[in-house]
Amino acid sequence: MSQPLIAVDLGGTSLRAALFAGNSPQPERHKKTSTQADKGPDHVFRRIIKTIEAVLPESTQGLRIGVGAPGPIDPYEGVVIEAPNLPGWKDVPLQAKLQSHFDCPVRLGNDANVAGLGEWRHGAGKQADPMLYMTISTGIGGGVIQGGEIMLGQRGLAAEFGHITVEPGGPVCGCGQHGHLEAVAAGPAIARMANARLDKGAKSSLAQLRDKGRSITAIEVGRAANEDDPLALEIIQQAGETIGLALASLLHVFNPQTVVLGGGVSLIGQPLFDSIEHSLHQHVMHPAYLQNFNLVPAALGDDAGLVGAMVLAASA
Hints:
Elements: E1 4-10, E2 14-21, E3 29-34, H1 41-53, E4 64-69, E5 73-74, E6 79-82, E7 90-92, H2 94-102, E8 106-110, H3 111-122, E9 131-136, E10 140-146, E11 149-150, H4 181-185, H5 187-199, H6 206-211, H7 218-226, H8 230-254, E12 258-262, H9 270-283, E13 294-297, H10 304-314
Parallel strand pairs: 1-4, 4-8, 9-12, 12-13
Antiparallel strand pairs: 1-2, 2-3, 5-6, 6-7, 9-10, 10-11
């Protein structure tokens, strides 16, 4: 077996580890389990150890480990500064703890950054340079890949695309600030807009779902939009316009070759992408920013974090 690489994708709900041989994006072994985050950092760390041990190769010579974890992260020090979805995780030296336990090089990265690295190397990014990755789901995260490396910033806190202010004084974001992109266009915001309109008597097929006791989610709104429901289309177009507004600013800053959109909300597909592209054309300062530019859906799905962590491990 060529150089063994262990990739770990740590989330608030699920914990995954996979063994990769060399740089192949196909894992040799894979293990998924619940994080049990409510039981605290020490318990979760023990679960990380057991999950990694479940995929270890027979020979650990040359072993390297890469970890994608929710942030903020300090990748230089290998510390989880604070993880909102992992109660009690504050200034946890995860990299050092794993290095001590497994006696091998370990690299730690922000989960969205790491997923972007995976899409750049083995997914929809096709080694574009620069490439921006934006994941849109319950929250909105991102990553910038330039010269084959994650752009980190001086504390490793760069590329928090979801916390660009797009509506000053707007809805409260999960971080406590107002009007961030995440608060206006992520999955919960889309669902909130739909429910608010239905509460005011708007006509929509979504009302039938509520009458049946089903909660309205962004995916339900997206499904209705793809079936040409006028209200759902309006809401998805509004979210896409706001995402496009933010992306236009990012194009001005980074002038990327490709933007890859991932996360559950991106699976809404054409209605969302059409609205984003329309907004980009409206808001870029010059059409030159859109020349030789691609806006594409992510290709790796839920595996982007694992594949990215594998790429990260290879550089450890």
